[in-house]
């Protein structure tokens, strides 16, 4: 499994003075990485959707590397997104395949920074122009990471910029991408963020087995929920059995907010979760559709194997 997948969206990478430098440095310095060059894979623009989707599902971090063309991405990369980010893959009732993955936009900008301003000749900020891609990440359930971009990344011999300066900026850009990826993969806070996303993705399915949950619970975990207080793995199993009698599978836990702070015994995780679900007719909810907002507080730590363990878990409804 490649932890990092980089999609190169430059239509002619071999002619690039910057994107090529960035990709070469990332390939040299990140051990578990796959770089997919769309210009060599799909010069005819006929995207192998299954191959691209498989590559995305194997990755933890997905990076789109591209030059900023006409306030957006190159046509080849847009075609890739249109084809690959399909219904029931990236969105839709079964479209959870990218949920919880980290999504980074890394791109080069030709114009100067001051031009992307209400008073500049481009009138809008870069961040404003990225809204469609930000929403794409949100719709797919991915973690939209702050984009990394660098200005003045065009070299026109004798006209615009010096080659050595542009290449230096490209190397600095790659270093920033490396640092962001390292932080995403290794920092405790970001590992907890990813754990939260994966936890609720599993909960949505409401499968019969509890093993996928109990392996992340401390032996004496304390579970405080509206149904009561439950202790240990057996207590969790009792509560989970109650939940499966009420809620139909394929519910949707929307993680609206996550805050992670260090505590005396590990990390305190405070969450705002919206549960959207259907209930069984013969349950206590009598078939009512649920749209419930709750606050959750977790106490977690990392065990001797560096795996996350939940020690306490409290759920308090905000509305009903």
From TrEMBL:
Keywords: Oxidoreductase
The keyword Oxidoreductase is annotated on this UniProt entry: yes
SUPFAM superfamilies membership: Flavoproteins (SSF52218), NTF2-like (SSF54427)
GO MF: electron transfer activity; FMN binding; NAD(P)H dehydrogenase (quinone) activity
Positions of the Flavodoxin-like fold domain: 3-171
Keyword Iron attributed: no
Domain of life: Bacteria
PANTHER family, per the entry: GLUTATHIONE-REGULATED POTASSIUM-EFFLUX SYSTEM ANCILLARY PROTEIN KEFG
Full protein name: NAD(P)H oxidoreductase YRKL
Organism annotation: Vibrio maritimus
């Amino acid at each position: 499994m490649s932890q990092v997948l980089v999609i190169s969206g430059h239509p002619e990478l071999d002619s690039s003075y910057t994107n090529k430098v960035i990709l070469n440095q990332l390939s040299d310095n990140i051990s578990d990485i796959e770089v997919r060059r769309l210009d060599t894979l799909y010069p005819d623009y006929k995207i192998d959707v299954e191959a691209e989707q498989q590559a995305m599902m194997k990755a933890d971090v997905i990076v789109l590397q591209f030059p900023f063309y006409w306030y957006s991405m190159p046509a080849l990369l847009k075609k890739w997104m249109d084809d690959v980010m399909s219904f029931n893959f990236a969105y839709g009732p079964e479209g959870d395949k990218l949920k919880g993955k980290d999504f980074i936009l890394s791109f080069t900008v030709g114009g100067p920074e001051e031009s992307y301003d209400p008073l500049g000749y481009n009138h809008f900020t870069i961040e404003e122009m990225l809204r469609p891609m930000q929403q794409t990440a949100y719709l797919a359930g991915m973690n939209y990471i702050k984009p990394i971009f660098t200005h003045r990344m065009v070299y026109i011999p004798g006209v615009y910029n010096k080659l050595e300066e542009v290449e230096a900026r490209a190397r600095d850009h790659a270093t920033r991408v490396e640092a962001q990826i390292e932080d995403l993969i290794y920092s405790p806070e970001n590992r907890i963020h990813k754990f939260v996303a994966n936890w609720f993705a599993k909960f949505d399915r409401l499968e019969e087995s509890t093993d996928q949950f109990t392996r992340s619970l401390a032996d004496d975990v304390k579970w405080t929920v509206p149904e009561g207080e439950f202790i240990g793995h057996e207590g969790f199993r009792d509560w989970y059995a109650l939940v499966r009698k009420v809620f139909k599978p394929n519910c949707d836990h929307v993680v609206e907010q996550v805050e992670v702070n260090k505590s005396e015994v590990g990390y305190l995780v405070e969450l705002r979760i919206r549960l959207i679900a259907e209930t069984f007719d013969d349950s206590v909810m009598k078939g009512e559709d649920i749209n419930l907002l709750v606050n959750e507080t977790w106490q977690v730590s990392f065990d001797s194997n560096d795996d996350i363990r939940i020690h306490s878990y409290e759920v308090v409804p905000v509305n009903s």
